[in-house]
Amino acid sequence: MGPTSALRAFCWIGAALDALAVVALLSPAVSRQMLGVDVPATAELLYAMRTGAALMLGWTLLLVWAALRPLERRAVVLLTVLPVILGLMATEVIAVRGGFFPAAHAAPLLGMQTVLGLFGLWAWARATGVPGEIG
Fold first, then answer.
1. What dihedral angle (degrees, nearest 10) is formed by the CA atoms of 94, 24, 53, 11?
2. Domain extents for the chain?
3. Residue 105 burial (CB count, 10 A)
4. What's the whole-number mean pLDDT along residues 99-124?
């Protein structure tokens, strides 16, 4: 897989996963099924979830945009891994340690994020020596 293909694949995979997260953030019932967290859908929780959905949708579209010109926009891949994926992973570990998020539900999510993050770093590193604007 060449550098351009790797970057493009990362962006499309990330966009698809982010789109699933948007659905989960817009629906407490879907979140409950996906994450195994059963808490009342208070106004505060719904506000936080909808705010997260808006941000996640924005990042989804940013990844789609980056996929269209992956070499020129490869910095988006690095920013997706650090701080976004790493930040989400840290939040999940804190939630597990706090007893809020069941470890059995967090483990596959953390595994997927680890694989995606490593793939993103690998794709970005392969493209670093390839000419193209970063931006």
1. 90
2. 3-127
3. 16
4. 97
